[in-house]
Specification:
single chain, Tumour Suppressor Smad4, 8 helices
Length: 292
């Protein structure tokens, strides 16, 4: 459905983009297409409640997340299982979900796309009955990398790369128990990914057969990887051949429980949620209508 009334949720701190022209670009696109619109800037304090209040007064048919994956997740929490559409103007460092949906990083192109209103129905993973995951979540190596990235205080893909290689030197193997599809497995792994999508924003494909509307998600288990095989595994991921690696196992599930031997960092859509010893996840089919 073509949007008629749009509420733009803008994260001024996302990525390292110049946002000085953003309001003007939004104004030009909405005026050109005869759309009514309003703006809301996040502050990091009670944003969800403030957006809900703004939406209850403005009553937009489309909420537009202008930021990275964390901003998109925040907006999705407000409209999940409703008729309100989600749209994205990618402004983050990685923009994983936007890339998955073929939304360009260019602001004017993404605005032009959302005006067309072509939508998909998208599944969502509910985690620990508290969080939702639209894209990718994990415990283990990548969550530590995100922690290092946040602590660096830097932004952009170069900073992601620096944090990646720094975390690579400190990666560890942990024992996990995973319950899914009426089976229980005890495994040693460096990372377990809950994947609703195929690839990280860096372009690394970790779940090549992913579908975001099939009523299931994937557990992607990364077994201990010898240093000598890291480069080949990285190449396989960027070429989309990772499922053929002896160090990766992928399970398609509708729900799962991961029990960690010791408390592990959990990240959801690029945002750290603290340490936990247990992760429960279930799919919610068709929970969002997304312009893509």
């Amino acid at each position: 459905m073509q949007p008629k009334k749009l509420l733009f949720i803008i994260n001024p701190k996302s990525g390292n983009n110049d946002k000085s022209r953003l309001e003007k670009q939004i104004s030009i696109a909405c005026d050109k297409n005869s759309k009514e619109y309003a703006l809301f800037y996040t502050s990091g304090e009670n944003d969800k409640e403030k957006i809900q209040e703004k939406q209850s007064n403005f009553k937009a048919d489309t909420l537009v997340a202008c930021g990275g994956d964390g901003t998109v997740n925040l907006v999705a929490q407000i409209i999940i299982n409703s008729s309100t559409q989600l749209a994205i103007v990618p402004l983050g460092s990685a923009n994983g979900l936007a890339h998955e949906l073929d939304i360009e990083d260019d602001v004017e192109e993404s605005l032009e796309l959302l005006m067309l209103g072509r939508t998909i129905s998208m599944d969502v993973i509910r985690i620990n009955e508290e969080f939702i995951c639209l894209h990718l979540s994990d415990v283990g190596f990548n969550a530590q990398m995100i922690k290092d990235f946040e602590e660096s205080g830097e932004r952009g893909m170069l900073s992601y790369a620096k944090s990646f290689f720094g975390s690579l030197m400190e990666k560890k193997t942990t024992e996990f128990q995973i319950e899914f599809n009426e089976s229980v497995k005890t495994i040693k792994a460096e990372m377990i990914v809950l994947a609703n999508a195929s690839s990280y924003g860096t372009g690394a494909v970790i779940n090549p057969d992913s579908k975001m509307d099939d009523g299931s998600f994937e557990l992607v288990v990364f077994k201990p990887i010898p240093v000598k095989d890291l480069i080949s595994l990285t190449l396989e991921s960027f070429l989309g051949n990772i499922k053929n690696s002896p160090y990766v196992k992928i399970y398609k599930v509708k729900e799962a429980k991961i029990t960690c031997q010791e408390a592990e960092l959990l990240q959801i859509d690029g945002e750290l949620k603290g340490e936990c010893k247990e992760v429960k996840a279930e799919i919610i089919k068709g929970a969002l209508t997304v312009i893509a």
